[in-house]
Design goal:
single chain; 97 residues; mainly alpha; rod-shaped
């Protein structure tokens, strides 16, 4: 009888431990989910800001020079921004390893 009681106590303790770990896992998954959602939103806002920045520079340059020349001049800041974003992503990926 003592062995059965000990087995049932061990099983109950194990189930309580699983329940507590499940709560911790659920909480952690929710935090990661919210963090990913905010990163996606922030990334979209940064891309939109960069787009508006480039359009603003293009419109200013198009008023000063021809639209063809403005397009050619805009390729440099667009390339610089693309390289900056690529470097940030590369740094972020290397940092995660």
């Amino acid at each position: 009888m003592k062995i059965l009681t000990a087995l049932l106590d061990s099983a109950a303790t194990f189930l309580r431990l699983l329940e507590a770990e499940g709560r911790i896992l659920r909480r952690s998954i929710m935090r990661v989910g919210w963090a990913i959602a905010f990163i996606v939103i922030a990334s979209l806002l940064v891309l939109a800001a960069a787009g508006f920045f480039l359009v603003g520079i293009y419109q200013y340059l198009a008023a000063q020079v021809s639209s063809g020349a403005a397009s050619l001049l805009m390729s440099l800041p667009a390339l610089v921004l693309a390289l900056i974003f690529a470097r940030i992503v590369n740094w972020w990926i290397d940092d995660r390893k």
